[in-house]
Fold this sequence. Notes:
This protein is an alpha+beta fold. It folds into two domains: 5-76, no CATH class; 78-195, no CATH class. It is 53% helix and 13% strand. It has eight helices and five strands. The strands form two sheets. The protein has a three-stranded antiparallel beta sheet with strand order 1-2-3. The chain has a two-stranded antiparallel ribbon with strand order 4-5. β2 and β3 form a beta hairpin. α4 runs antiparallel to α5 and α6 packs across α7. The longest helix is centred in the last third of the chain and has 18 residues, at 124-141. The two termini are 27 Å apart. 32% of the residues are buried.
Amino acid sequence: MGIPIVWQPGPAGREELWLSDAGRPHTRVLTWESPTGRETVDLWAMHADSVPEFLAMLHLEGLIDRQGYDTVLRLHDPLYAAACALLECLPHRRVGERIADPTQELFPLIERMAEAMVPFVSDAIARAIIADALGTYWASWVGRYEFLDHDVNAARQVLNEAMIGATAGIRILCPGDLTLTPEAVRAMIGAVVESHP
C-alpha cells in the first residue's frame, strides 16, 4: 500500500518528514538531523500498510520515541486521540489495582469518559456505549462487575479481541503487564462508531 510522505527543508539546514495528502504536507513526524538513514524511512513508508504501522516501525528503528509516536498518531487519527482522552480519565490503568469505593467511582467515571469523547465522537449513543463498556471493563479489573446490555457486550467483546492479540502489527499486551493501551481502546471506539453511524 505505502504511506505518502514528503521531505521538506527545516530550520538550521535540517530536513522535516511530513505525512502528506495529495502531495501536500499535513502532519510533521520528525525533524531529521542528518541525511543518513533516510533510506530506512523511505523503505518503511513504501512498505507500511497504515500510518500506525509506519510510525511503529520508525519507533522500532529508534527514529521516534513513544511520546512522538503518540503525538503524531493523535494528530493523524481522531479516534486514537479519543482513546488517549478516555485513558486519561482512568484513576488506575493497571490490572489488580483497587479503588477505595468502586460503587461510587464507576458512574462518575463513565460520565467523565463520555464527556472526554465529545470532540471526537459526535453520536451521543456511541459515546455512551463506549464509555460504559470501557468504564465497566476497567471496573471489572479492579473488582467490580456489571451486567451489560447487548450493545455494550458487543463493544466489550471488540476490546477483548483487541487486547488478546496483535492488531495491524501492534502488540496490544505484553506478558505480565496487562494495561489498557490507546491502540486497544481505539479498536473498540472504531467498532462502535462504525455500528452506530
